[in-house]
Every structure is written in C-alpha cells, then in structure tokens.
DNA sequence: GCCAACGTTGGC
DNA sequence: GCCAACGTTGGC
C-alpha cells in the first residue's frame, strides 16, 4: 500500500468530473519518471491525493484510489490527440496509464496552505521547480493531510 | 503572459 | 557522451 499525489488540470478532469464516473483513465502522462511510478510501483488500492494544477486555486481537492495496474495510454496512437507520440508503436508502447477512482471531494487544501505546515516541508510537490505530475507521498504525509481534512469539520 | 526550473533532443 | 538549444510545466 503506497500513497501518491496526482495532478490534474480541472479544465481537463476535475474532482467533480472524476466523481461523476466509476473511474477515470489517467491519460496524458508524458514524463518518464511519472510513467515509471505507475509502471513499477502503483498497485490497485493505493491512496491518491487528487490535486488541481494549472488553475486559479491549485491544491488538493479530493481523495481517490488507484484501481488498475498500468496499461497502454491509447492517446499516444491518435494523431488527432494532443498527446499523440509519433515515435510510439502498438507493439512497443512508450506511455501507459492507470485507472483512478475518485472517493470524495474535500475542502481545497491550497498550495499555500500546504506550505504552512512544517510536517509537509519535504513533500516533493512543494519543492522548488517540482513539475512531476505524479509524486509519492509518505505514510506520515498522508496521515497528516487526512487528519487536517477530518479536523476541519470540527473547526468550522 | 512571464519566467524559473527542468527534461528532451540532436549535432558533434 | 557532452551540452546548447529548445520545449514544457505550472505557479504567479
């Protein structure tokens, strides 16, 4: 059982979009490090922090879980797709994806809020220049964040 | 729209 | 295998 933070642009797939479906195929990852996490480490049942990026309020927007192992990302074979890769072949696909099931929407924990917590200062997504769309989250970070989310209902 | 950070490409 | 040029990400 591992934990991950996965970035999605809400214009493309928001937490609301994800909740409206049984699961969403995490297409479009075109970075080898992120791909390798999916290929080599992700397992069904792994916890996912659903993160909204490239938007007005970037931050954690929900909780999800991995619900498949890795399989080829079909968008790499589609010349009309933004994610088309002419160098990838059906026989030897370069890019893969997993299915992710959204479990619940949470209050938005903004990037700024994440930065205020010393417990989270080692989070990869907070590191300067971090651009990886998929990053591992430690059990301690996962626990801290889910406690923040649980605690919020008492505070308000 | 800007730009820092970082990844990829390709000539040599 | 080096590294300059170029492309992309993503917060601001």
> pLDDT under 50 segments (min length 5)?
none
Q: Per CATH, what is the topology?
A: ph1033 like fold
Shape: globular
Instruction: Give the count of structural domains.
Output: 1
User: If classified by CATH, what would the architecture be?
Assistant: Roll
Mind explaining what this structure looks like?
InterPro entries: 5hmC_binding, EVE_domain, PUA-like_sf, THYN1-like_EVE. It comes from Undibacterium luofuense. This protein is of the alpha+beta class and 156 residues long. It has a single domain (3-155), classed as ph1033 like fold (Roll), CATH 3.10.590.10. It contains four helices and eight strands; from the N terminus they run βαβαβββββαβα. The chain has helices at 15-19, 32-40, 111-116, 139-155; strands at 3-8, 24-25, 47-52, 59-66, 71-72, 96-97, 99-110, 134-137. It has a six-stranded mixed beta sheet with strand order 2-7-4-3-1-8. Strand 3 and strand 4 (59-66) form a beta hairpin. It is globular, with a radius of gyration of 16 Å. The relative contact order is 0.22. The model has no long low-confidence stretch (mean pLDDT 94). It binds a DNA duplex (12 and 12 nucleotides) through loops.
Which helices and strands, and how do they pair?
Layout: E1 3-8, H1 15-19, E2 24-25, H2 32-40, E3 47-52, E4 59-66, E5 71-72, E6 96-97, E7 99-110, H3 111-116, E8 134-137, H4 139-155
Parallel strand pairs: 1-3
Antiparallel strand pairs: 1-8, 2-7, 3-4, 4-7, 5-6
This protein binds a DNA duplex (12 and 12 nucleotides) through residues 7, 9, 30-33, 53-55, 58, 111, 128-133.
